[in-house]
Specification:
The complex is a heterodimer of chains A (99) and B (196). Chain A is mainly α. Helix content of chain A is 75%, strand content 0%. The mean pLDDT of chain A is 83. Classes of the chains: A mainly alpha (99), B mainly alpha (196).
């Protein structure tokens, strides 16, 4: 299933929203490291996010997906990117300030 | 601010890999942005922290490549891309729990309410909502242009760090962010000229 093309205004608005939320996530990650290790915070964050996304996907798209071999490799590569993003930022925040 | 150079990396990689804008249009902006990262790293914290900062930086290069690839993929919905990639990341991280434990050693009672709220923010807003919003936006405007606006991330991070964590924002940090934002302004202007 493909997404319909969003309007330019909505698209820019979505990007701005994402950037602002990610900016706030740096502070939240720094706070979370008080009680959690970098790996614990990353795993809990991803499990929670995955649960929300899976529930949303199931209700909107009926749980059907067809993935080719090439798609699976691409998704695997993207997954490594997500892992690096989430985990390495948390590890780095142990040594630098949030700003 | 270090993370703020990610949009410029995304623009460069996007220009190289999917050629949505010419590479020459983004190089002029990429250099001052990276200079801004260098200013913050060397002047603010000393050379011993540079390698750690670049660990954060390198992860964003990888993440940027992922953002480009996900924007170019029209065979699957953004929601499908999001949950499948997050599932891959989660499965690969779980074994690492045995190497790095803090809450698991101290007990769940050691976690304060504010830390649970911070984790909740990460789960709901930074992971689920922000990922969906980003992919939706990239579908509409492309990764290079979207990445320009991604530089609101360090602005929000610095402002909220000062507000909530009480971290100091000095001249070095301001200089660094000016260089980063100058770089992305150049990228935005040059890509707009190329498009017109």
């Amino acid at each position: 299933m493909t997404m319909s093309q969003p309007s330019t205004t909505m698209a820019y608005g979505s990007v701005v929203l994402a950037a602002a939320l990610w900016g706030g996530s740096i502070v939240a990650q720094k706070m979370a490291l008080t009680s959690f290790s970098a790996v614990e915070a990353s795993v809990l964050r991803d499990i929670g996010g995955l649960a929300i996304l899976l529930a949303t996907w199931w209700s909107k798209e009926g749980g059907a997906v067809r993935v080719s071999g090439a798609d699976a490799r691409l998704l695997g590569l993207l997954g490594l990117g997500v892992l690096g993003n989430h985990l390495l930022i948390l590890m780095g925040l142990n040594y630098v300030s949030g700003g | 601010m270090i993370i703020g150079s990610s949009p410029v990396v995304t623009s460069v990689l996007s220009a190289m890999l999917i050629k949505d804008v010419p590479l020459r249009a983004v190089w002029a902006g990429a250099l001052p942005s990276f200079a801004g990262v260098g200013v913050v790293s060397v002047a603010g914290f000393g050379r011993q922290v540079i390698s750690r900062c670049w660990a954060v930086r390198s992860c964003f290069s990888e993440w940027s490549a992922g953002r480009i690839a996900s924007a170019d993929d029209e065979r699957m919905s953004a929601l499908t891309v999001n949950w499948t990639t997050l599932m891959v990341a989660t499965v690969l991280q779980i074994p690492l729990l045995w190497t790095d434990q803090k809450m698991m050693n101290a007990g769940i009672g050691s976690v304060t309410t504010s830390d649970w709220l911070a984790l909740g923010y990460l789960v709901v807003f930074a992971t689920a909502v922000a990922q969906q919003a980003w992919l939706f936006g990239v579908k509409g405007v492309g990764p290079s242009r979207a990445s320009v606006l991604g530089n609101l991330t360090p602005v929000a991070a610095i402002g909220l760090s000062a507000l909530i964590l009480g971290e100091a924002v000095g001249l070095i940090e301001i200089l660094g962010i000016c260089l980063i934002l100058a770089g992305v302004w150049v990228v935005n202007r040059q890509t707009a000229e190329v498009s017109s």
